[in-house]
Structure formats: C-alpha cells, structure tokens
C-alpha cells in the first residue's frame, strides 16, 4: 500500500475532526436544509406553464407556489397526482377561514362540472334518439329468459337500478348498490317519474343521495331517464325498485340479497 496515500487520508480525517463544523447538531442541520429548500421553492418564480395552470384554477402566484411546495412534502407522497390544487390548499389550510374559502371554491367547481356532465349526457341521449330512432338501447330478443342464477355479482358486472324519486325503498336499495360500487364495473340508474329534460330534478336527486360527480364523469354511475326501458327489458315488472344485472350481453333479474 502506498504510505503517502494512507497518510494523506488520515490527515484529512484529522482535519475534519478538528473542524468546528463537526460539533454542529445533525438534526438542526437537516432541518435547516429542509427549511431552506422549501423557502427556495416558495420563492421560485412560476414558469409560463405554471402561471397558465394557476389562472385556470383561479389561484394567485403565491397560492400556486404554496401548492407546489406542499406537493413536495407528505401530500405529494400519499395523494394521487390528480389531486386538485384547491384540495391540497384546503387540506393544508392555515386557519378555519382559509379552509372554508377553499371548500366553497371547490364546491362551486364540482357543481359546475356536474352540470356540464349532465348537459352532455342529455345531448348524447338526444343524439341517440335522433340518429337511431327505431333502435332500442337493449335488444330484448337477445335477453335470456332465466332468473338470477344465484351466482351473485362479479367485478365485471353492471347493476341496473330502476327507481323513482320519493321512494324510501328505492333510496335504501341505491345505498346498498353504491356500497358495492368498488366491486362492480358500474351502476346504471334509470329514473321514472321525472320529465325528460328536467335537469334540475335529476341533478338534485343524485346530489341528495350521495352520487359523486366523479363517478358520473368516469361512467362508474350513469343517470338515465327511464323512458320505457323497464318495459322493454322486463315486461310486467312495474313495482319499483327493480334491480337487474348485466353480465356481458345478458341482462337478468337480480335480487337485493345478492348485494
């Protein structure tokens, strides 16, 4: 071994031991670095892209900088990347007034988005009636005539629920169906007793029963005007609520006990 190299290495170690920096508290040093990093991030000017995004969310540069800093910490580690800046700032609000402000802002945004979703759903339904006036949503001739096989529900099944407003039994069954939503492909709700085009009625009905706008956006839940669909799928079934199961191309009656 080269003695000069060894001697040089020992000298370096000794110089470090003699240095006053060795006496510094490691915990304080780490904390100081973290605080400095956060401060730098908070003071870093927004890029053009970030300014545009902040404007879309109705946030100031300071708010976006704080959101950016929070996402570098625990919030970014445990929340999905799709979490909104409003939710992040609201979760980490510094006082009750700030928390309420972000909550109200988020409620307005979600309400407006629900209106857009329902408007597009109505446009889609209208387009279907216009383009295919002689075709029904479901080909009744292809439906099997057997009853529920007793196999229960699978992850790939969709549940069809026929209900009406002001129906306690319908509400109770809907709650049980929604509780299984994470174990289904989705739920299709068909409402009777609401005039076609009455968007306020169907929106309020859904909101009062805890149907989240994001479920409708991703089509995990669809809201439909009944429009005679029950008579086509299950002739003679008039007493609501009615529960059906769609498995592939088969639609069969489903008992509430299967939930």
Q: Extract low-pLDDT stretches.
A: 1-34, 145-150
Give the helices and strands as they follow along the chain: HHHHHHHEHEHHEHEE
What composes the largest sheet? Answer: 5 strands, mixed
The main sheet orders its strands as 3-2-1-4-5
Mean of residue pLDDT values: 79
Terminal CA distance reads 76 Å
Overall 3D geometry? elongated
Helix content: 40-55%
* Helix run count: 11
Counting helices, strands and paired strands, the structural category is: alpha/beta
How many β strands by DSSP?
5
Using only C-alpha atoms, the radius of gyration works out to 29 Å
**Strand content range:** 5-15%
What order do the helices and strands come in, and which of them pair?
Layout: H1 3-18, H2 26-43, H3 48-56, H4 61-71, H5 74-78, H6 85-91, H7 96-131, E1 158-163, H8 168-179, E2 186-191, H9 199-208, H10 213-217, E3 221-225, H11 229-233, E4 242-247, E5 250-253
Parallel strand pairs: 1-2, 2-3
Antiparallel strand pairs: 1-4, 4-5
Helix pairs in contact: 2-4, 4-6, 6-7
Describe this structure in words.
- The protein has 259 residues and is an alpha/beta fold.
- Helix content is 52%, strand content 10%.
- A five-stranded mixed sheet has the order 3-2-1-4-5.
- A hairpin with a 2-residue loop joins strand 4 (242-247) and strand 5.
- It is elongated.
- It starts with a helix and ends in a 6-residue tail after the last strand.
- The model is unreliable at 1-34 and 145-150 (pLDDT under 50).
């Amino acid at each position: 071994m080269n003695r000069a190299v060894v001697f040089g290495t020992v000298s370096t170690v000794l110089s470090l031991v003699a240095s006053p920096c060795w006496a510094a508290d490691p915990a304080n040093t780490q904390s100081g670095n973290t605080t400095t990093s956060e401060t730098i991030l908070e003071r870093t000017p927004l890029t053009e892209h970030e300014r545009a995004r902040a404007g879309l969310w109705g946030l100031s540069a300071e708010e976006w900088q704080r959101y950016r800093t929070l996402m570098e910490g625990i919030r970014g580690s445990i929340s999905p990347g799709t979490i909104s800046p409003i939710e992040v700032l609201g979760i980490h609000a510094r006082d009750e007034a700030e928390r309420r402000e972000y909550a109200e802002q988020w409620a307005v945004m979600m309400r407006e988005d629900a209106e857009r979703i329902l408007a597009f759903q109505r446009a889609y339904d209208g387009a279907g009636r216009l383009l295919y006036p002689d075709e029904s949503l479901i080909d009744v001739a292809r439906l099997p005539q057997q009853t529920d096989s007793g196999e229960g529900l699978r992850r790939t099944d969709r549940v069809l629920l026929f209900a009406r407003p002001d129906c306690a039994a319908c509400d109770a069954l809907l709650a049980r169906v929604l509780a299984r939503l994470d174990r289904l492909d989705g739920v299709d709700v068909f409402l009777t007793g609401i005039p076609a085009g009455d968007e306020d009625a169907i929106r309020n009905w859904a909101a009062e029963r805890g149907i989240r706008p994001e479920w409708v956006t991703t089509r995990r839940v669809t809201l439909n005007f009944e429009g005679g669909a029950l008579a086509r799928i299950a002739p003679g079934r008039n007493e609501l609520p009615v529960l059906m199961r769609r498995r592939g191309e088969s639609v069969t009656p489903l008992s509430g006990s299967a939930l």
